[in-house]
Amino acid sequence: MGIRKLGYVGLNVTDVDAWTHLLGRTLGIGVTTAKFGTDEVALAELDVFKYRLALYPATQDSPREIGWIVDTPSELDRLTRKLTDAGFTVEDGTAEERELRGAIHLRWFTDPVGYRVELVVGETKARTGVARPDGTPGATGLGHFVLASPKLAELRELYESILEFKLTDYRNPGLFFFRCNSTHHSIALGTAETAGLHHLEFEYASIDDVGRAYDRAKENGTPISISLGRHMNDKAISFYVENPSGFHIEIACGGIEIGDDWVPHDFGVPNVWGHQHTSVNPFAQK
Q: Which residues cross the membrane (predicted)?
């Protein structure tokens, strides 16, 4: 009970058109729009629910909100009490925010690095089938994100002790993977001099869908920041592209699921094969 899964991520972006071009033409993801205040927000529909990624027009690229789906209103109340007892200020979302998210209840707080974290109850289906541009195979869901910051200890305390995520595995000196369901991880926390998202992961149904997206990325001149490869810890096969906001999108399939008998461990080397970086890997072991 408690947090059930990663629900959505909202981003402030300076070039919405470049984002929608990447999502639609290369990654095979349908994008709709919705009014929010005076803005028109682009909504990326990775599955049958309303959206998993929201793009807000802005003058600076930055994370806007991270949304987690909570099982029940009573569990939302319980987590609210834990957050309040730990010194976090928890506030209710507005009616307009709930409508955009497709949520029944929404509460939010600010995490140790200054990002807005939302806890919501309820999801709204947008349609019975997933919208795909021109029938192109695309993502089937939002898997995880990696957050790097200088406040690793504080973030671990938040996600492990308060929000009750379980440690799956790690790589010393400072990269930790956490789960809130049977998926290997929904969030990973790493160290960096300044806070930022390292990547978002989009899940695809098969290696063929990942491969076709890889071909489209090369054909469209999309910057491939990390080559095709297989991770050692979750066994996912994936590649990464640089998005218009300057961080990575991981296109992946085949990640393993974890049972209650799993024992956290240092998984040693990062990859079984592949995943060559075009720039310095911030999580490379020293």
A: none
